[in-house]
Design brief:
Layout lengths: L2 H9 L6 E7 L2 E8 L2 H6 L7 H9 L2 E6 L3 H15 L6 E2 L7 E4 L7 E4 L7 E3 L5 H15 L6 H4 L7 H4 L13 H15 L4 H16 L3 H16 L16 E10 L2 E10 L2 E11 L8 H12 L8 E3 L7 H9 L3 E3 L4 H18 L5 H8 L6 E10 L2 E11 L2 E2 L5 E4 L6 H20 L12 E5 L2 H14 L5 E5 L4 E3 L4 E2 L6 H27 L12 H11 L2 H6 L2 H4 L7 H10 L1
Parallel strand pairs: 8-11, 11-12, 13-17, 17-18
Antiparallel strand pairs: 1-2, 1-3, 4-10, 5-6, 5-7, 8-9, 9-10, 13-14, 14-15, 14-16, 18-19, 19-20
Amino acid sequence: MDIESVRERAGDLPREPGVYQFRENGTTLYVGKAVDLASRVRSYADPRSHRIAKMVARADEVEVAVTDTETQALLLEANLIKRHGPRYNVRLKDDKSYPLVQLTDHEFPRIEITRDPDPGSTAFGPYTERGRVEVVVKALRETYGLRGCSEYKFAGRDRPCLDHDIGLCTAPCTGEIGAEAYLADVESVVQFFEGSTGVLADPLRGGMAEATEQRNFERAANLRDKLEVVESFHEGAGEAVAAQSPEQEVDVLGVVVEGERATVARLHSERGQLVERDQHTLSVPDDDDEGVGSVLAAFVVQYYAERTLPDALLLPEPFVDDELDAWLDTEGVSVRVPGAGREATLVELALKNARRGRGEPDGTAALADALGIERANRIEGFDVSHAHGRAVVGSDVTFVDGSPEKSDYRRKKLDDENDDYANMRSLVAWRARRAVERASGHAEDDRPDPDLLLIDGGEGQLNAARDALDEVGWDVPVISLAKAEERVITPDRSFSWPSDAPERRLLQRVRDESHRFAVQYHQSLRDEVKTVLDDVPGVGPQTRRRLLRRFGSVDGVRAASPDELQTVSGVGAKTAETIRGRL
């Protein structure tokens, strides 16, 4: 676009908050946000950098979306950057995005939380804290009875489902409510999301008063908590994140930019103690000339898409984004660039972490090349744990760019069966079904598909996983890693990589984490189960747990000799004889 075309397009735009996209042949080149769309787009007639000038010259159109608030514009910008991966934006290499609420375009609209609204649906948001949105959506369903089920479950029913029985749905599927009345309830929900808080707050307030009058104080307290969330939902467009207390949680950021890659190191401090550190990679346009402040701004908006903001951010340089500063201020986040003292030392430590991580490959590129797949940035690892077929559980851990993504960890209680292959087949089939449901828009699990599945085990476990994928119809690469020889097994061949190969070390980290997560869950379930050991005098809960950990099961304890039993802390000669006598 030439200068006159940019000015002409800007003249047609509203002077309202929103997001704009410069596009070329339908492909998004750049996404930006604005307090005043007309003024911001007009500024591109005099680009602020060589990179932006190149982008404007390539673009053939500008597409805009108006938002209610500046905060919504900021969050929508982050979602669009993640969705389109525009060439001229700094992009955090993960899969997070801010949730929205959609009312689908059906005869009886469905309400749901999503990151990718359906075509034709009415969407509200985005919002920063999913938990708050979930509270509001549940309260709306309890008040107005909108359905949350998929079209598959909605069609062909002859009686209402459980949601109707527990008061979450008015069951339009079986004619318990007519179309006109249902759509009136939908309109009330729309009014709430458009800012009419009383549409939901008033019924909650009335229910709380009624519960108090009936001396049902537990229900009254539950309604009070919901009411607090609802009444604060539209403050700052519903994205407010409440800080527990000033300076209780602090994130310290350090960044190093090298060519088209930036490394951000994050140190997390709670009550003055460093408790966590991690590193993240961002892709930077090769001709970006806006510096560290621009990278930091892109990181903060995209990284905290599904994470609670800290009470304070310590930075090496200020943001190059006044609107981001304003947003963080409304969220109660203190942003500081310390020049001296302990805080400056922490920033320097974060910078050292960023510099150290800059040259360490995460193994994803090497792994993709070795396996002949397009990429291996997102890997899910699977393992099964049990005790002779009892308390059988499965783990599903996620690594993104070589680092654990713990918010995407999942675990599954499986049917008790002493068959490792069958258990793995069941676990992978469960994950595959959730992925297929997500693709059709009908799933609770909204994690994106991984680039690779890693199975903890040998050829038998790999074949079981492949059977599950074929059965469900989920097409994703899958391999296994056998512990004994650290041999990588694929459907076509096997590899024995050097111990220092980055691709091998990456797979080992994923495998070990899936194993740890599975064992942890198995032990928690096993220790919760009441056994005959509870009836043995002298054996309390802690001793019982030690016995089960040491011998694996009650049968293992039964088979142990008195001397072996006494190797467990808390078990003396008398208790050992009592155990033997009772079992």
